[in-house]
Amino acid sequence: MVRVMLAVAALILAAGLAAAQSNPIAARKALMKANGAQAKIGAAIAKGEAPFDLEKVQTIFATFMEAAEKAPALFPDNSKTGGKTEALPAIWKNKPDFEARLAKFGADAKAAQADIKDLAAFKATWSGFIRNNCTGCHEKYVQKD
Q: What is the DSSP string of 83-141?
């Protein structure tokens, strides 16, 4: 099951990133979709709706690290509009802050991946990780529905 989830996440990510050269909006959407899928798994574990599985947790944070590494290149100036992008103009107005947030996201994911070995450590880390990285960035840089 875990290998299937890894393969699916990798395929989604690879397909999206392959399109990055010609369509950065589609590529970043694929990247964020993979993050969202992994975040759902993490949330289920944190809520006790899914059992703790260290391999799944490692995959979650590996996906986040890869996204943090690849995302900055997916926001070129020519991708501010179109493709039903949800990215707000604030990204390009304050690119250093946006890129710093991505770097922090990656560094925090790497630290979490190294530190988490059991459910207690995961629960102690998860909500703060999401709040300090995902929520903060989305509030500032993603269009609300």
A: TT--B-THHHHTHHHHHHHHHHHHHHHHHHHHH--SHHHHHHHHHHHIIIIIIHHHHHH
